[in-house]
From TrEMBL:
It comes from Scophthalmus maximus. Residues 1-63, 262-336, 353-384 are annotated as: Disordered. This is DNA-binding protein SATB. Residues 194-253 bind DNA. Belongs to the CUT homeobox family. Residues 304-317 have a biased composition (Basic and acidic residues). Residues 67-154 form the CUT domain. The lineage of its organism: Eukaryota, Metazoa, Chordata, Craniata, Vertebrata. The chain holds residues 712 to 1124 of 1124 of the full protein.
DNA sequence: TGAAAGTCAATATC
DNA sequence: GATATTGACTTTCA
């Protein structure tokens, strides 16, 4: 399946060894031949306002759909691609919105997210790879910037035109109840119903949720309900928050791994051995890896009382390592999780498991005996160190759990 | 069926 | 005004 191949396949495609190669060196690449066939930017009769979700149709000459192209694509260096795209956009004063809507068929927020936190190729599903293939094609198109500039001009022209006509009509084009006032979708005004107001969690609520997450990245329904009632939130909000937080922490860690590896993304460079990667059940676990209790931590997790002894009380915003790494995203800092007892000290036995990461980030502490509260030269080093420690601890914990089961079929990773 | 992935779009921030 | 963040939702997948 796409997902399986994305996360577990040994990357059959030829790996790209460097940023430059991956961005510019696609000679012989199936996609390279498509580069010049990138569809000219549609000259939208409506005034150049393309919509997300209706990206430019793809290169026509081969008759390949984007899905087919994605499937055919060799492994791309997503980090290098986004870096290059950001560069080009900045250099040419092109906005994310225009780029997203025109080239990728995505909204500005999605583009921002994608450019800031690209996931490694092998972690992406086919769908997730699509924007990167589009970006790659765009970068390869010698007229890409030119076309986008044209589009920008067209948009500006259309905007001015509308402004003018609205002024002459003396009623604002943007007036009325379009867009933000109504639920997504284009109902006629009569059918429109008011949007649900966006929930904005307060700092205390976020803090409490983070603490709860540190204790249990996968809270039981009971825990969720307790959290919801104590924070006066809907359970769906709490559930969504956990989903989003897990997902975003995971992505943060991808980035960190990439950066720790020197910005080169290749098979394995995200620091995960395939055997450890992509294990759903193993990804991000609770402190004890079970859902058995789910009661005690709730009150503590809400920050209603100090629980520094249980899980480290640190700012998840600044160091989201509690989510673990891409190996097992949700981790608890081993220094305080209570798991770092005898036999599970941070780093012990983890050398091999982290050899890839460590090898590529020699400036960091050795993978063994990672200090609890890092003495790293800068917060980033410290952050990374803690993250690795947490990751190691989690792996050790799983190994211990597995070892405690006699029947190998019961082993859980 | 639950979790992850992917995305939208409102809102915050720069 | 552009970009970043994030709650909510849909789709995909195991």
């Amino acid at each position: 399946t796409p997902k399986t191949s994305a996360s577990c396949s040994p990357a059959p495609e030829s790996p790209l060894s460097s940023t430059e190669e991956s961005v510019n060196g696609l000679v012989g690449d199936p996609l390279a031949s498509q580069s010049s066939s990138l569809k000219p930017l549609s000259e939208d009769p409506s005034g150049g306002e393309s919509q997300p979700g209706t990206p430019l149709p793809l290169p026509g000459h081969s008759g390949l759909s984007i899905q087919e192209m994605v499937a055919m694509s060799p492994e791309l260096d997503t980090y290098a691609i986004t870096k290059k795209v950001k560069e080009v956009l900045t250099d040419n004063n092109l906005g994310q919105r225009l780029f997203g809507e025109t080239i990728l068929g995505l909204t500005q927020g999605s583009v921002s997210d994608l450019l800031a936190r690209p996931k490694p190729w092998h972690k992406l599903s086919l769908k997730g790879r699509e924007p990167f293939v589009r970006m790659q094609l765009w970068l390869q198109d010698p007229h890409s910037v030119e076309k986008l500039m044209d589009m920008k001009r067209l948009e500006k022209k259309a905007y001015m035109k509308r402004r003018l006509s609205s002024l002459s009509d003396s009623h604002p084009v943007d007036g009325g109840l379009v867009g933000t006032d109504y639920v997504q979708g284009s109902q006629s005004p009569g059918q429109q119903h008011l949007k649900k107001p966006r929930v904005v969690l307060g700092p205390e609520e976020k803090e409490a949720l983070k603490k709860a997450y540190q204790q249990k990245p996968y809270p039981s329904p009971k825990t969720i309900e307790e959290l919801a009632s104590q924070l006066n939130l809907k359970t769906s909000t709490v559930i969504n928050w956990f989903h989003n937080y897990r997902s975003r922490i995971r992505r943060e860690l991808f980035i960190e791994e990439i950066q720790a590896a020197g910005g080169v993304v290749g098979p394995g460079s995200d620091g995960g051995s395939p055997s450890l990667r992509g294990s759903k059940s193993g990804e991000g676990d609770s402190c004890d890896g079970t859902e058995s209790d789910g009661t005690v931590e709730t009150r503590q997790g809400l920050g209603l009382e100090d629980h520094r002894g249980a899980c480290k009380d640190h700012d998840m915003e600044a160091d989201s390592e509690a989510g673990g790494s891409n190996n097992s995203p949700a981790q608890i800092d081993c220094t305080t999780s209570g798991l770092a007892g005898p036999g599970s000290s941070c780093g012990q036995g983890g050398l091999g498991l982290f050899s890839l990461t460590e090898a590529s980030s020699s400036s960091h502490a050795p993978s063994t005996n990672i200090p609890a509260s890092g003495t790293a030269r800068n917060p980033r080093d410290n952050h990374l160190r803690k993250k690795k420690a947490a990751n190691l601890n989690n792996i050790i914990h799983r190994l211990e759990k597995a070892a405690s089961k006699e029947d190998p079929s019961e082993w859980e990773f």
